[in-house]
Structures are given as structure tokens and as C-alpha cells.
Model the fold of this input.
Amino acid sequence: MADETHVASAGVSPERPQRLPFVADRDVPLFQAQLTVALANHGITLDAAQVMALVTHYHLLGGANNQFNLTRLIAPAEAVRWHYLDILAALPCFTVPDLPDRWVDIGSGGGFPGLVLAVARPDWQFILTERRAKKAAFLRHCVAELDLGKRVQVFTGDIEPGTVVRALNSCGADVSRETFGILARAVEDGPRRLPRLLGIPLFVGAAFWFGQEDAQALASRLSPAWELRQHHLLPTGDRRVVILLTRRTN
Done:
């Protein structure tokens, strides 16, 4: 996950003082309190169990981050803002009709956005993809701890046009009958790489988190087969957006 990418894209310098290591007794209560305030301030409705699932995920993220690098943004306030709020504030985009109910998260890293959306949207199924084995193992641990195994799978490897069918089949998907949406956030070289994935017929919806410039670059590369349904400004920075695309049916 390219945390520095979305910090810089929001007009904030990634240069920061040396960070304190995650300490659960100190950081988890602060995270829970700040997350609760952020959800209320932005009109995002989650039930108590969903909030606690996100708190548990943050706890797992912080503990693992002390062992290997999952994110630079682990302090409670910045994790709430740059990770959780950045994703949850996009939920209104997903109310448009005719979206798929199975989603593939490209480069999920610490679980962003797929694992957070899995908590917020219990009616959907997700495949989290991650090419780094340690990060994929962390994702599997989170899925088990959050009891999401019935609707969230993890694939270790890259998703490319030539590998996607094998990847989805290995996660129990029936690619002969099912279609999927694709999720991506902080994907390296996203405006160039993601249009290639949109050429895969299995994908009929897409949601991408970008800075404004990358969003415009991607839009300029879109095939006429795709329609821009939402272009949603995010509260995490005046240059952060999420765009929602659907494949045209005619």
C-alpha cells in the first residue's frame, strides 16, 4: 500500500517526525473514540458490532505493523482519517443500482479498502488480493479473527488479465456464472494498470480511490464500454476522490 501516495495527493507533506510504535493500551481506545466521532461528524451509520470490528482490525493492524511494514499511518488520528474514513466516506457511492455483490480488491495490503468494506457491507462478498506473502497472511488472520470467512477470501499473487481466472477459481468463485466488481486504492501506476484490468469481461463494476490528477488520467484512458457513475469528493483531503464505474450493457 502506498500510504505516502495518498498523503502527498491530499496536499500534505509526507515528511513527518519519527513515529512512536503502536501501543495497544494507549492507541486502541484513542482510535475507537476518534473513529466514533468521525462517523458521527460525517453521517456514517454503522452498528456497534461493525464499529468494534473496525477497532479489532486496527488493533490487529497495529500489532502486525510493529513486526513488518503494513502502513506508515498507524497513529490513531491519522489511521482514522487516511484509512477508515477515506473508505467509509465513499459508502454513498455504492447505493447506485445494479452493482455486483462480489468484489475483488487489488493490492489489499492491510485490508484497505476491501476488509473495511466487508465490515460495512455484510451483504457483499470479497476477494482480497495481495502479492506479498506476509501481508496476505495478515489478511487471512484478520478474516479469521473478524469471523468473515464465509464471505471474504484471500488470494496471494498479482491480478492480471492472464491470471485472474485462476485466482478467482482458487477462491471458490464460479467464473462461468458470476461477475464481479473491482476495488483499488493506492495502486502503483493505477491510471496505466487499472484500465487493463477493466478489459476483463468478468468485471462489471469498479471503484477506485485516487487523487484528482490520477482520476483524470484514468478517465482519459477509459474504454467506451465503461460509464462513470459517481465522482465523489472525500473529506480526507481536497484532492481525494473515489470514482465508481459500471460496464455499459448496450
In short: The radius of gyration is 17 Å.
